[in-house]
TrEMBL record:
Lineage, highest ranks first: Bacteria, Bacillati, Actinomycetota, Actinomycetes, Kitasatosporales
SUPFAM superfamilies: GroES-like (SSF50129), NAD(P)-binding Rossmann-fold domains (SSF51735)
Coiled-coil regions listed in the entry: none
Highest rank taxon of the organism: Bacteria
Keyword hit for Zinc: yes
Pfam annotation, one family: ADH_zinc_N
Transmembrane region(s): none
Family from the record: Belongs to the zinc-containing alcohol dehydrogenase family.
Gene3D superfamilies: Medium-chain alcohol dehydrogenases, catalytic domain, NAD(P)-binding Rossmann-like Domain
Molecular functions per Gene Ontology: alcohol dehydrogenase (NADP+) activity; zinc ion binding
Protein name: alcohol dehydrogenase (NADP(+))
């Protein structure tokens, strides 16, 4: 066991504070990662404040982890000391179910995926995330960060990047496809970048035009305010694919009306409240409403390689650990462009 510094929420809704946690000894197939940067995801806030239900405390959030390997177990074959690696939203799964064998560990139907934090590992101990100086992870649940990506801008790709890459690839975003991204935040801005790089015609649907210039610079061809009723009239029946990234309930019937026949509305945002839907908005156009989680390990590696090839890092604001609580409030106020990243050397 190794004692490392971390920032943790001692209880639900309590401010995060500096503390220490125990990391397990490096096992045969484990790697010890010196964490360099950790992104702040909106889901960190949901969980630290029990917005999604009962949680485990003290909680060390963080599942957008980028760092360097400082020790490897004797059975490790994929990595060596000094390699640049990342860890995303889960650190284990059953490994034997149909989904795990297909590289869809995020949908593990056996024991279920083991979350990077706010979960219970196979050793029966609570998992702790990236707001810390080190983490021990099985090599099979670690991904390589290509040299073309700086670690600070790569960290958010481990959640925000893969959360958008996975549905964009699954629903075949590319040349000839019209894709709308709902919300231009930590997730949405990566959706714009990735969809554009895939060759799709990208539209941003945002509550206001406040970030329009940013959206166009990131790769959007069009930008509309959803607070304007004319937007829904003008864009009716336009899109092959709409991906909603927002964490607040939307009028899904209105957004479904923007789809072409056979179009799909995919939700990757996770509101704490239930949403409503008039099913006629789907029935009358043979449209689909779908959800998508993160990606599996292979797809996450594919995403990182794609982002390196196209120069797609996250747009970040680098902060010290002492600013985490302030950053949480700013995320809730949509006051970040577009991802806070913690310099873990300040923990």
């Amino acid at each position: 066991m190794t004692t490392v510094a971390a920032y943790a929420a001692p209880a639900a809704k309590a401010p995060l504070e500096r503390t220490t946690i125990e990391r397990r000894a490096v096992g045969e197939f484990d790697v010890l990662i010196d964490i360099k940067f950790a992104g702040i995801c909106h889901s960190d806030i949901h969980q630290a404040r029990e917005g999604w239900g009962t949680a485990i405390f003290p909680m060390v959030p963080g599942h957008e982890i980028a760092g360097v390997i400082s020790e490897v177990g004797p059975g490790v074959t994929k990595y060596q000391v000094g390699d640049r690696v990342g860890v995303g939203c889960f650190v284990d799964s059953c490994r034997t179910c149909e989904n795990c064998e297909a590289g869809l560990e995020q949908y593990c139907t056996g024991t279920g995926q083991v979350p990077t934090y706010n979960g219970i590992g196979k050793d029966g101990e609570p998992t702790h995330g990236g707001y810390s100086q080190q983490i021990v992870v099985d090599e099979n649940y670690t991904v390589r960060i290509p040299d073309g990506l700086s670690l600070d801008v790569a960290a958010p790709l481990l959640c925000a990047g893969i959360t958008l890459y996975s549905p964009l690839k699954h629903w075949a975003a590319g040349p000839g496809k019209k894709v709308a991204i709902v919300g231009l935040g930590g997730l949405g801005h990566m959706g714009v970048k990735i969809a554009h790089a895939l060759g799709a015609e990208v539209t941003v649907l945002s509550q206001s035009l406040r970030k329009k210039d940013d959206g166009l610079k990131l790769g959007a061809a069009h930008y509309y305010a959803t607070s304007d009723p004319k937007t829904f009239e003008e864009l009716a029946g336009t899109f092959d694919l709409i991906i909603s990234t927002v964490s607040a309930p939307l009028d899904f019937s209105a957004y479904a009306s923007l789809l072409k026949t056979d179009g799909t509305l995919v939700n990757v945002g996770a509101p704490e409240e239930p949403v409503s839907l008039n099913l006629f908005s789907l029935i009358m156009g043979r449209r689909s409403l779908a959800g998508s989680s993160i990606g599996g390990i292979r797809e996450t590696q594919e995403m990182l390689d794609f982002c390196a090839e196209h120069g797609l890092g996250s747009e970040i604001e680098l902060i010290s650990a002492s600013e985490i609580n302030e950053a949480y409030e700013r995320v809730l106020n949509s006051d970040v462009r577009y991802r806070f990243v913690i310099d873990t050397a300040t923990i």
